[in-house]
Design goal:
heterodimer; A: 233 residues; alpha+beta; Immunoglobulin-like; 3 domains; 5-stranded mixed β-sheet; two-stranded antiparallel ribbon; 7 strands; 32% helix; B: 195 residues; mainly alpha; Rna Polymerase Sigma Factor, Chain: A; Arc Repressor Mutant, subunit A; 2 domains; 8 helices; globular
Chain lengths: 233, 195
């Protein structure tokens, strides 16, 4: 005979209702059920649920569910509230204003900034991480332009490329780029300009790391620069 | 819910022909016997016949001197008697139920009063609430298994679930339903307690 813990552990009542028990297991469970009030109650409840459910399931399709005569307040999804006219009308009016401002003011300014020549202060970096970092004053409108010197290779083919990484005051990688390494026969070094748009600038200490990347992928840090950015606006 | 075991007093009352005890006993075991028999017999009439014969034989045994030696095992005794009656039924019908009893209307439960009807209505509300809160897929799964009586393995394959999922689905629904069931019918199904 099956004992109570075995019946619970094996989910015997569920298996019985689903007709999953072998003939022997079914006999053993029945013998237990006739002796165990708790399992008998469990089985009765399960059987009653199944019997009533069988009468109701045909009316409950996969998605739409009719209510059972007892009136209840229709439940609306919370995210649909923005479609209510009281909210939607002013919301769409505000949206039109924003779109109008962007089309008439913001986009022309951005287009002009991208297509027109402009002057940006050029600040020379120090490749020395010791002592207080170089202070650079800037504003959100103009951003910052910094020269990056890529040194010539110590030996022919030592580096396949150079990696340049800019980290913001929070230590997050703000920009990263890989450029081909100049050959040993090229002039002493190659100078690049790193332009940081004003929109992403924030006060604090930025660091720039220049690494040489060997053909096997190994990286060697060649130069490190640090500067403290102070915004004027 | 507090459970009670069969006591010698309860069995003594049955043996003495106490009508209230006998009614309680019959009500308690009739449902269990029907659950047991419906997986073995097709016709409702055959189920009813075997059920009634089982109860009659149990009462008969109880009235005999030393009929039930272990009152606390009264349930096991009922099950054993039912197995014998079932065996006799198979023997009498040649293991095949006669067709003349098949299709007879199911016996109507007698004595259904307003409280029974109200309780049944509440039970329906509860089942409806449980079904409505299920995912549509789970409802279709239950329908395929219990109503359409489709092959379990085929249904599981179609819905991309395993047998455990089916058991747990039924287990959770049953657990939620059980509270309402006990509230409505608990008093009637306490074993060994005089009602």
């Amino acid at each position: 005979m099956m004992n109570h813990s075995e019946a619970l552990h094996q989910m015997a009542a569920e298996r019985y209702l689903l007709d999953e028990l072998t003939p022997d297991a079914r006999e053993a469970f029945e013998e237990h059920v006739f002796d165990c009030q708790e399992c008998a109650l469990d089985l009765r409840a399960g059987a009653a649920f199944v019997e009533v459910a069988k009468t109701q399931l045909p009316g409950l399709s996969g998605a739409a569910v009719p209510s059972l005569s007892r009136p209840h307040k229709a439940k609306r999804e919370w995210w649909l509230f923005w479609l209510r006219p009281a909210f939607a009308a002013p919301a769409f009016a505000s949206l039109l204003l924003v779109l109008g401002y962007q089309n008439l003011v913001t986009y022309p300014r951005l287009r002009a900034a991208a297509t027109q020549p402009r002057l940006i202060p050029w600040t020379q970096l120090r490749g020395d991480m010791r002592g207080a970092p170089l202070v650079i004053a800037a504003d959100h409108k103009h951003g910052v332009a910094l020269p990056i010197d890529l040194p010539s290779q110590p030996s022919e083919g030592a580096y396949a490329s150079y990696s340049i990484e800019l980290h913001d005051p929070q230590g997050k990688l703000a920009f990263g780029a890989v450029v081909p390494a100049p050959g040993q026969s090229d002039s002493d070094s190659q100078r690049l300009g790193l332009v940081i748009p004003g929109a992403i600038l924030r006060n604090g200490v930025y660091t720039i790391a220049v690494s040489g990347v060997a053909p096997n992928g190994e990286r060697t840090v060649i130069d490190q620069y640090a500067f403290e950015l102070r915004l004027n606006d | 819910m507090q459970f009670f075991s069969f006591s010698a007093d309860y069995v003594q009352s049955l043996c003495a022909g106490d009508r209230q005890a006998q009614e309680h006993f019959a009500a308690y075991f009739t449902e269990l016997l029907q659950l047991k028999l419906r997986s073995r017999l097709q016709s409702p009439q055959a189920i009813e016949d075997v059920c009634q014969e089982t109860l009659a034989r149990v009462f008969s045994a109880l009235r005999k001197e030393g009929g039930v030696r272990q009152p606390e095992r009264l349930g096991a005794f009922v099950n054993q008697v039912c197995n014998h009656v079932l065996f006799d039924h198979y023997h009498d019908t040649g293991a095949v139920e006669s067709l003349d009893v098949e299709g007879r209307p199911e016996p109507v439960a007698e004595g259904a009063d307003a409280l029974d009807i109200a309780a049944a209505r509440q039970i329906q509300f509860k089942v409806h609430a449980i079904l409505v809160n299920l995912a549509p897929r789970d409802r279709l799964l239950l329908k395929a298994v219990f109503l359409d009586e489709r092959d379990r393995d085929e249904v599981c394959r179609e819905f991309g679930v395993d047998r455990d999922y089916l058991r747990v689905l039924l287990h959770r629904a049953k657990l939620e339903f059980k509270t309402e069931y006990i509230k409505r019918f608990g008093e009637r199904i306490r074993l060994g307690e005089r009602v």
